[in-house]
Amino acid sequence: MNQDYILPDNWSIIEEGFDAERVESSESLFSIGNGAMGQRANFEESYSGHTFQGSYIAGVYYPDKTKVGWWKNGYPEYFAKVLNAPNWIGIDITINDEILDLAKCKVKNFRRELNMQEGWYNRSFEATLQNGTEVSVNVTRFLSLVADELGVINYEVKPLNRAAQITFKPYVDAGVKNMDANWEEKFWEPLDVQHSANEAFVTARTFKTHFNACTFMHNSILLNGTDLEILPGNADTTKDKVQFSYTVEASQNDTAAIVKFGGYTVSMNHDKDKLVHAAKNVIANAKAKGYDTLLDEQKAAWASIWEMADITIEGDVKAQQGIRFNIFQLNQTYLGKDPRLNIGPKGFTGEKYGGSTYWDTEAYCIPFYMATKDQQVARNLLTYRYNQLGKAIENAAKLGFTNGAALYPMVTMNGEECHNEWEITFEEIHRNGAIAFAIYNYYRFTGDYSYIPEKGLEVLIGIARFWHQRATFSTNRNQFVILGVTGPNEYENNVNNNFYTNYIAKWCIDYALEQIAKVQEDYPADHARIMADVKLDAAEMVNWKNVADNMYFPYSEKHGVYLQQDNFLDKDLVKVADLDTAQRPINQKWSWDRILRSPYIKQADVLQGFYFFEDHFTKEQLEKHFDFYEPLTVHESSLSPCVHSIQAAVLGRMEQAYTFYLRTSRLDLDDYNKEVKEGLHITSMAGTWMSIVEGFGGMRVKNDTLHFEPRIPQQWKGYSFKINFRNQVLKVSVHPGETKFTLEGDRELTVVVNGREVTVEPNTLVTV
Predict the structure, then answer these.
(1) pLDDT value at residue 71
(2) Over the range 592-619, which residues count as b (16 or more CB within 10 Å of their CB) and which as e?
């Protein structure tokens, strides 16, 4: 770990004591969201210290023109930016004519809390201003899950040593920039500014993509809990900002407060000419309910989420805090309400990476959403890719592929590739495999086959066509090879025959052929429709099969393992344990050239294949490959520790599995990769859930049946989780020597525990 200031707590993320060096990290860690919008935990009041300002609206992006010193055919023309949205949280505050700024005050009793159980963020402190006035401040903020266009702030100031004239200056401001803008340009064009009484509305439009958003606010001023029902003393306006001013005379120990409602109405959801009207409706509804009712609704909404999604851990507070933080952030990022949306790698916590969709969604996130929500949520994520199939075919065509071959993008907002690193955009083609695997995984878990004849088969065909064309027949090997790729391990670029890529390519073709035959037999009308649309004939499928049956996989007889790529053994295989810790993380200490020549693995690569296709290999094979590759793995990808935790658990190496679990669950809380200030690793958080459910719980689906091989780290007294399996909710509670099952459903469920069949009746406790 590289930081250790978050206090252990079962349900909250807590920071005590003000440290300017931690501000940007805490802005990430205390981020809030509601699936439709989110924001970093920036201070509402002015702050002249280092800060990373960030508010974000789901689905709104900007195609920032790629900035490189060279160009190659097929190169993406833009890098999709997750936009820093207009700021509605701002409240400048002056106290006895001095600006409240924690960078210029003496601060004590500073405390932040992100209450994950109830879904609110609180910050409190005492400050001594340079004019000698002492105040205590208490701020609570939340983004409503019930009304997801609404955010709420309750900002209280209490003079401690003298009376004070307190001026609140709330504002909405569309004059924002992205920290990562390629050309230092603004992405928002102001269109309209309106205000009346205590309400203000700034409408702006993104350049190029033309998303319209109305950023709004409504303010109420209170003294000792009583609404003063006052209007602003003045309203300062510019072309992209409105700021009100309210002055309150507060005696010593009085509490002056502003309750601010704010948020966004967006043209994705409303007519662009009616955004202000929609915002007024949001405000009217919020006023009718009031702050206390809105907060109660928030608590109830989060209680409903936790009822299904919670994982309990007994006897290990840091482990408990870690998994709940991961589950909380996943639900803040994506709730499955809108099929147009997806799960960005930073969610609403930062700008890095750009785009809203990576292969992380299919490889890591879908299992979490399938098991903790209604299966329609996971189906929406699959449908998202189906809806972008046309773009995937266009992406492949730009690279010279034909006949409906589909290459899904590494990074996208609308289906078009928008990643601007050559070795990722053109070479990390394994992402196609994760999308096909997700279709298989969805059917395996839910039993809902209807998705495949309705939509999924066309995706599988496009992907199979790509792999068929991407493979090259080697007369030297008398087998098919795949050249010039980057596998999941991004510390090897432009390699030949990456094992994982070759293996999943073969599997994709075989699975597509299998599903074509099944649909032909069981859904003949759909089969006829699809074959006519994609113009697929038997001769082409024979060619696919030839590639799959004759795919080459690099293998070392000496070591008895599949090789990451053809030339892996040419490297100096110095283990990570023998690497000077001062050289870590290597992605921040070494040149890229040195990394590429090294044996060090960023994340599970061969082992990723063993994770996806566990039943294709023996446990002895897994052990041999784990022992060969894990010592060379630096785990500098957030996606790495979870896979290794699951596989260590399978091998019975519980201490190692536990260590990897802590690393994945507290990756951001403890800042293992020294980058948390840039934002959280949202998509890998689903891997934390998997490390408990699939790793320690040993959950698998085999032959339409749930299987469990429960294990428990010695640091834990017990743990429990719930699984929504085919519309029945199974609760699993594991303690040393026993596992308990209870079922919420209307029919019995047979599960297999350590190889033994067990029948669980509804509302009955079964102990194994």
Answers:
(1) 65
(2) eeebbebbbbbbbbbbbbbbbeeeeeee
Question: How big is the chain by its Cα radius of gyration, in Å?
Answer: 27
How remote is the C-alpha of 14 from its chain's centroid? Answer: 22
SS3 at position 24: helix
| Bridge partner list, 480 | 473, 551
Token pair in block for residue 84: 């820093």
Kindly report whether the peptide bond that precedes residue 170 is cis, defined as omega within 30 degrees of 0. Answer: no
Q: Which of 167, 26, 222, 3 is nearest to 110 (CA)?
A: 26
Q: Give the separation between CA 712 and CA 718, rounded to whole angstroms.
A: 7
Q: Residues 250, 164: contact at Cβ < 8 Å?
A: yes
Q: What is the three-class DSSP state of 163?
A: coil
1 pLDDT exceeds 70? no
Q: Which residues contact 290 (CB under 8 A, 6 or more apart)?
A: none
Average pLDDT over residues 38-48: 98
CB neighbours (10 Å) of residue 117?
Answer: 16
| Non-local CB neighbours of 730 within 8 Å, separated by 6+ positions | 706, 722, 723, 741, 742, 743, 744, 749, 751, 760
Distance (Å) of CA 709 to CA 126, 652, 755? 52, 11, 8
In the prediction, which pLDDT does 82 show?
86
Instruction: Write out the DSSP string of 669-737.
Output: TTTTTS-GGG---HHHHHHHHHIIIIIIS--EEETTEEEE-----TT-SEEEEEEEETTEEEEEEEETT
Q: Give dist(CA 425, CA 416) in Å, integer.
A: 11
Question: What's the CA gap between 502 and 471, in Å, rounded?
Answer: 9
Question: Residue 752 has which token pair?
Answer: 């297999």
Whether the predicted pLDDT of 72 surpasses 80: no
| Closest to 566 measured CA to CA, from 552, 554, 557, 551 | 554
Active site residue: 490, 492, 675, 678, which one?
490
Average pLDDT over residues 493-515: 98
Confidence (pTM): 0.96
> 67: exposed, middle or buried (C-beta count within 10 Å: 0-12, 13-18, 19+)?
exposed
Active site residue 394: no
- Cα–Cα dist 631/561, whole Å: 14
